[in-house]
Specification:
This protein is an alpha+beta fold and 174 residues long. It is built from two helices and 14 strands. The chain has two domains: 29-101, SH3 type barrels; 105-170, SH3 type barrels (Roll), CATH 2.30.30.40. The strands form four sheets. It has a five-stranded antiparallel beta sheet with strand order 6-5-4-1-7. It has a five-stranded antiparallel beta sheet with strand order 13-12-11-8-14, with no helix packed on it. Strands 2-3 form a two-stranded antiparallel ribbon.
């Protein structure tokens, strides 16, 4: 009689152990570089009921540091608090796609000039602190677009930051 319970109990523990191993290995593969597949809201917590912090534009690379349910935990590149996005709006960045992304030219990137005196913000939006004032008719180097904001840096070693895309135009040699 005792033997009847021992065999199913061993099978049960074996199945549970396999399931835990599978969950653990999946969790390990969740972390790393991803790219967004659509404009996606970044939320303060894992779920639609959490506040939207910002919207991440389609096609940017993000760093996933964890997962809660169907929500990926994203680490900020600007030192802000981590946020969460729905996993259906991101895909892992493979080595091949990372090489293609870095090898392909970004149509937004390149030299621009400021159209007026403007604020250089720490992040993509007016809610971020102003890092510096940039005079009108100054050449800036655009690295990428994030929604309506452009990430810029100075060739002279000035602070990097974000400007509204409406306040700059492509640089034309005169």
């Amino acid at each position: 009689m005792r033997r009847i319970f021992v065999i199913p109990l061993r099978i049960f523990f074996f199945i549970v152990a396999l399931g835990l191993l599978n969950v653990w290995s999946y969790a390990q593969t969740t972390k790393g570089a991803y790219t967004t597949t659509a404009d996606v809201p970044l939320r303060s917590g894992p779920g639609n009921f959490h506040e939207v912090v910002t919207t991440l534009p389609k096609g940017i690379n993000i760093n996933v540091v964890g997962k809660e349910g169907f929500w990926l935990k994203i680490e900020s590149k600007h030192g802000d608090k981590p946020g969460y996005i729905d996993e259906q709006f991101a895909k892992p960045l493979t080595r091949e796609s990372a090489a293609q992304t870095s090898a392909s030219t970004n149509p937004i990137a390149g030299p621009y000039r400021t159209l007026k005196e403007l604020d250089l913000h720490e992040g993509p939006g007016t809610k971020y602190p102003t890092v510096a004032r940039v005079p009108a008719d100054v050449k800036v180097n655009v690295l990428r677009a994030e929604g309506d904001w452009l990430r810029v840096e100075s060739k002279q070693g000035g602070k990097p930051g974000y400007v509204d895309k409406r306040d700059v135009e492509r640089w034309r040699d005169r």
